[in-house]
Structure formats: C-alpha cells, structure tokens
C-alpha cells in the first residue's frame, strides 16, 4: 500500500498536517426546476478539461457575481467589474475586449446570468419554505394531471426532434415516419 506523503514524518520528525486545498463548493438547491445545474455541469467540464478555470464562466463566477451584487447593489455591473476583489468575473471576457460593443455585451451577459441565478435562488427559497411548512404534493390535484400531460408532450417533442435529426442524416425509415 502506498503511504500518504502528507502523513509521513518530515526530517524534523513532525508530521506534515497540511491538508489539500478544499474544492470550491457553492450550490443552489433549486430542485432541478431551472437549467442552472446543467449549465454549471457543462461549463465546469469545459473549464476543467481545457485548464481555463478562470477564462470559462462557471459556478465560481456566479458566486463572485452574487457577492458583488451584495456589496455594490443590484445591477451595478460597472462598479462590480471595477472592484479588484471581483476581478475573477472579468477573466472570461478578456478575449473580447477588442470588440466595439464589449462593455454592452459583457453587461448584458452579467444581467442575463444574474437573472438565471436569481430565479434558482427564488425557487430554492420557495422549496425551503414548503419544507418548513411540511407541504406535500397532492397526487389528485389538477396541477399534477397537468404535470403528467406536460411530461408526455415533452417526450413527444424529444422523439420528434430525434426523428428530424435521423431524417436529416439520411435515415429513410425515420424520414417515412416523420412525413406520415
């Protein structure tokens, strides 16, 4: 078995108690009602695989964006960007700095991204309140029937999308089914 070098005695006879740097953790428990976790997963995968953790927007940037809003105020994008403590949110845009509409593009992105995070935070708070009040779903409620119908329509739309892709790829049986 291999030994952990952090636990091995050093030359002075003392153990090296330095722990690994903890992994950054920031989460919003939105119950899967928004696309935020899918975005985070895809962005983090791209950032890690490319080695560009600061250059590709992901969960860490959302954290600093929220921290900037807490400190500087709602929609104070310029103040947040100019504060050196929040410099990490400027990193993904460095390659675009030469474009004429750079600041407008950057501010629109920040506003859009904040809206996504804000929506997830609102849902998280609603779920927290529902849990606190011990609220549960009534399976006989008409909204649950609507939810089932929506799931059926979503499944149908995904199937149609798959058939369309297959048809475009030259799959003759898919083309025949699509045109019936």
Overview in brief:
Residues 54-180 form the CHD C-terminal domain. The protein is 56% helix and 0% strand.
What features would you describe in this structure?
By secondary structure, the protein is mostly helical. Helix content is 56%, strand content 0%. It folds into 2 domains: 35-136; 137-179.
- Fraction of helical residues: 55-70%
String of helices and strands = HHHHHH
Q: Please, how many helices?
A: 6
Give the beta-strand count. Answer: 0
Sheet bearing the most strands, described? none
* Percent in strands: under 5%
Q: Indicate how many domains the architecture comprises.
A: 2
Cα shape? extended
Structural class: mainly alpha
Distance between the termini: 64 Å
Mean pLDDT: 82
Uncertain ranges: 1-8
Radius of gyration: 24 Å
Pfam family, one: CHDCT2
InterPro entries: CHD_C2 (IPR012957)
Protein name: CHD3 protein
Domain CHD C-terminal: 54-180
How are the secondary structure elements laid out?
Blueprint lengths: L35 H15 L8 H14 L4 H6 L19 H31 L9 H27 L3 H7 L2
InterPro entries: CHD_C2 (IPR012957)
Protein name: CHD3 protein
Q: Which features does this protein show?
A:
mainly alpha; CHD3 protein; extended; 6 helices; CHD_C2; 180 residues
């Amino acid at each position: 078995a291999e030994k952990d070098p952090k636990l091995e005695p050093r030359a002075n006879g003392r153990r090296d108690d330095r722990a690994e740097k903890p992994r950054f953790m920031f989460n919003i428990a939105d119950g899967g009602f928004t696309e935020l976790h899918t975005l985070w997963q895809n962005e983090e995968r791209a950032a890690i695989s490319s080695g560009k953790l600061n250059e590709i927007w992901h969960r860490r940037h959302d954290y600093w964006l929220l921290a900037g809003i807490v400190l500087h105020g709602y929609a104070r994008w310029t103040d947040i960007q100019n504060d050196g403590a929040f410099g990490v949110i400027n990193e993904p845009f460095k390659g675009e700095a030469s474009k004429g509409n750079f600041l407008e593009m950057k501010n629109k992105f920040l506003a859009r991204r904040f809206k996504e995070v804000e929506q997830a935070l609102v849902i998280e708070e609603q779920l927290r309140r529902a849990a606190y009040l011990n609220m549960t779903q009534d399976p006989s409620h008409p909204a649950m029937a609507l939810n089932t119908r929506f799931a059926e329509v979503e499944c149908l739309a995904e199937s149609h999308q798959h058939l369309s892709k297959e048809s475009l790829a030259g799959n003759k049986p898919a083309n025949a089914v699509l045109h019936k």
